[in-house]
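Quick illustration, no need to memorize.
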Amino acid sequence: MRRPSRYTSPEFSDRNYRPARGTMPDDWREPDSPPSPEEEDPDIAEESPLETPSRAGDDTPPQPRKRSGLRIGQFFTGGILTQEEFTRRLPVIVYVVFLMLLYIANGFHIQHKHNELDRISEELKQLKTRAVTSSAVRMTLTRQSEIERLLREYRIPLVLDHTSPHTIDE
């Protein structure tokens, strides 16, 4: 038998749903809590927190707030370069760009070194093969029988002494 999911259980029905803390409607409050300042003084509730308070005797309409966000058009037109926040953070931006260029240059340097290492290892393999080959040829040429054969072949009048060497007495 299948267990019911915890989301389909009766505790999760719509009538038992309570929104998370801080997401309650503005007019909702606990039954035992005292009234908020807006509920006590209706003049405070009428003021909008987004508008700037007007001075007494000033009939000019309130100025709309200036948008201080980053827009794509400012990026392409260069208007972002004149913003105070950008100029304030310019040393950090230059430092980050410098680090990025350093990272890219280091990558190219490492790639060049790897290519050089591959080339040198290929050359080392070829030189090792050549060294083994020349060593084998040298071993063959230095045998006494091979030396005698070469002397006869080139008609060099060198006679080998077949007497055994004598020992020196003290």
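DSSP finds six helices and no strands in the chain.
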